[in-house]
Specification:
GO molecular function: tRNA 2-(methylsulfanyl)-N(6)-isopentenyladenosine(37) hydroxylase activity
CATH superfamily: Ferritin, core subunit, four-helix bundle
Helix content: over 70%
CATH class: Mainly Alpha
GO biological process, one term: tRNA modification
Strand content: under 5%
Shape: globular
Largest sheet: 2 strands, parallel
InterPro entries: Ferritin-like, Ferritin-like_SF, tRNA-Hydrxlase_MiaE
Distance between the termini: 37 Å
Structural class: mainly alpha
Protein name: tRNA-(Ms[2]io[6]A)-hydroxylase
Order of helices and strands: HHHHHHHHEEH
Number of helices: 9
CATH architecture: Up-down Bundle
Strand order of the largest sheet: 1-2
Organism: Marinobacterium iners DSM 11526
Radius of gyration: 17 Å
Length: 209
């Protein structure tokens, strides 16, 4: 099984065609790039937060340090791409996606850490799946950029998942399935906002576009 097939199997559902069609429209590109930049910045912040919170876990520190650096490089690359296209990076309201996933996080340790790591794996896996699904519908420059991110995002997914398994000390298949169901519901349910990780576009959103 190749890496992308493994990721799709892990996710349990693919991005709805309606989302891909909306994302491919030229008028959607600024929203997509702006939110992508925010996602890269948030990913780096999440990695740094884990480093500060769990200072006694050397494997986590090393992997999150590398991940944070890579995400910030991606952030800079998105900003450069936006600037070259005459787009201005600005504030944007967050999608419901990450917050929706975090509603199921346990409050006591080590459950909290395991759940946060599993969520990290799902976010990175979904990003990877969307980069691959979007690329054929985009202009050459943007398609090439998104394809260039597949390897690192795929590794981030694997790092998060392996850390979760290592620190759990017991099987975590039930927790993975729990978050898989939440993640699929967020991706497949109608969404009134278009974001990089948003769900199936609502009729009102599609009409507005």
């Amino acid at each position: 099984m190749d890496a992308l097939s493994e990721i799709k199997d892990f996710l349990g559902c693919e991005t709805p065609q309606e989302w891909l069609e909306l994302a491919a429209k030229p008028e959607s590109q600024l929203i997509l790039l702006t939110d992508h930049a925010h996602c890269e910045k948030k990913a780096a912040s999440t990695a740094m937060t884990l480093m500060f919170r769990y200072v006694d876990r050397s494997d986590l520190l090393n992997k999150m340090s590398r991940l944070a650096r890579e995400e910030l490089i991606h952030f800079e690359q998105v900003l450069a791409l936006m600037e070259a296209r005459g787009h201005r990076y600005d504030h944007m309201s967050p999608a419901r996606y990450a917050g929706g996933l975090r509603t199921g996080v346990r409050t006591s340790e080590p459950g909290r850490l395991i759940d946060v790591l599993i969520i990290g794996a799902f976010i990175e896996a979904r990003s990877c799946e969307r980069f691959a699904a979007l690329a054929p519908s985009l202009d050459d420059e943007l398609a090439k950029f998104y394809r260039s991110l597949l390897k690192s995002e795929g590794r981030h997914y694997q790092d998060y998942l392996q850390l979760a398994r290592d620190y759990a000390g017991e099987p975590i298949d039930d927790r993975i399935e729990y978050f898989r169901q939440i993640e699929c519901e967020l991706i497949l349910a109608e969404d009134d906002e278009f974001r990089f990780h948003s769900g199936r576009p609502s009729a009102a959103l599609t009409a507005a576009a």
